[in-house]
Amino acid sequence: MPVPNPLLAASAVGVAAHLLFFKKLEHHVVHRRYVAFRRHVAASAGSFALGVYMSQSPILNEKPGVHISWVSAISFSLQLHACFLLGLYASLLTYRLFFHPLKKFPGPLSARISTFWLTSYNYNDVWRDVASLHEQYGPFVRIAPGELSVRDPKAVAALHGPKSKCDEAPFYHVIKPTTSLHMLPDPDIHDDFDDRTLREYNQRASAYRSVLLDRIHATKGEPMDMARWFRFYVCEVIGHLAPGAIFNILQTSDNHWAIDAFGSGLLPSVHDICYRPIVHTLVAGMTSILYELVKHPEHIDRLRQELAPLVQDSLLDPSPDELEHLEHLNAVINETLRLHPPVHTTIWCVTPPGGVRFGPPGGVRLGHVHIPGGTIVTYPQYAVSRSKSAVPLDAFIPERWYRFPWMAVYKNTFSPFVMGVYPWAGDNKRLALMDIRQVISRLVWTFDVAFAPGEDGGSFEGVALDTFMVAYGPLILTLKARQGVQL
């Protein structure tokens, strides 16, 4: 019986491994096992080479009775592994280019065949790259072999609406095992953010706002990084709500050692307090609003006119209910969050294999476009908020939210606080908006705000990083107390 060519057999095994194993199942759940698997493969290669060296197999040895050299044995073992990988990746690339359910969707060639294109931008301004891809390819772009970026505002209801049957993306399955069950709130013990709870929170936060204003006033108009000071303020407030997490960083104006330590992952509990979504949203939101107001000072005057009726004895201390109904203040917040959403890509989801029937069984149909089941879909808020189809005039125009509704076509799908079947938005959104209104209104009423000498705000967006939630750069401003205004 003739001996089969072992190299061709190894290639065939690689093809079979892709078609029967790697193309199926949820491999992201057991990603750590693949690291161990590669170690076993390396060990087996050495063992196989030893076996070939010690044997008189006709597979390699054409002259029985003559020992095979170590070089020949190792070379043959490496050739087998190389042919296996060649067959595996040849099948993988062929499938992704010509037979994948997403083959009809446009996108960069490198993105259609590998996830390296997407991961290479994780520490850069990936949101701008995705937005430019949408300008080039249209509302549906394939940004990874099994992932679509959808810039169509109509996608929100189908993918992230309350009736959506889309599931969480694999991204969340990877990080879930690191979340302690003890960190989950018990609804029987922890109150929701109802009106009473929000008022209590506002009273607690009011003391820290006063400290923030005092520290700003003490600078006497010297340049200061407001992104840094907002982070101090928010961590102080949220830390006050967590037992035993008082940092006193507003008074010292220095990072607490624990806050520095969390950056290296040494103290996950501090990370939970200071960089949970609500904290990041507050810091990014406050900094972005101040940035846009300094660029457009005419809106500071508009805000002061709107706030004037709430001033008593030259002191502004409004209630949350009073600020909630100020049109221009809320429009400034919405317009800033449109231009600078804290989460540029919102959440990922996976289309269901069946159940969401906007077209053929399985997947989701948006208009005339069918998204197959099992597709990872992301809704890039930055790209949507800058698209001409959603926002006819892409400029800082707060009036679009209450005076010119035709300028906010996608108003009903606007959700800078993330959206989905399991939204973060709910109670935390009310808390975040209340704090943002209070801080911004007090700042614009109490201080004259401007860029520091030699600054134009370029570093604020110029060095921003997309780490799921965008991390903006420093915002160096001067804040001088207004005459006749109490702190």
Describe the structure.
- By secondary structure, the protein is α+β, with helices and mostly antiparallel strands.
- The chain folds into 3 domains: 6-99, no CATH class; 105-179 and 346-379, no CATH class; 191-345 and 404-481, Cytochrome p450, CATH 1.10.630.
- Helices cover 49% and strands 9% of the residues.
- It is built from 20 helices and 14 strands.
- The protein has helices at 6-22, 31-54, 70-99, 109-113, 116-119, 126-137, 155-160, 170-175, 195-218, 226-241, 249-252, 257-262, 268-274, 277-295, 298-307, 320-324, 327-339, 381-385, 425-446, 458-462; strands at 140-144, 147-150, 167-168, 224-225, 311-312, 315-316, 348-350, 364-366, 369-371, 376-378, 447-451, 465-467, 469-471, 476-481.
- A 5-stranded mixed β-sheet has the order 1-2-10-7-3. A 3-stranded antiparallel β-sheet has the order 4-14-11.
- Helix 9 runs antiparallel to helix 10, helix 14 packs across helix 17 and helix 14 (277-295) runs parallel beside helix 19 (425-446).
- The radius of gyration is 28 Å and the shape is elongated.
- The protein starts with 5 loop residues before the first helix and ends in a 6-residue tail after the last strand.
- Residues 261-275, 355-361 and 421-425 have low confidence and may be disordered.
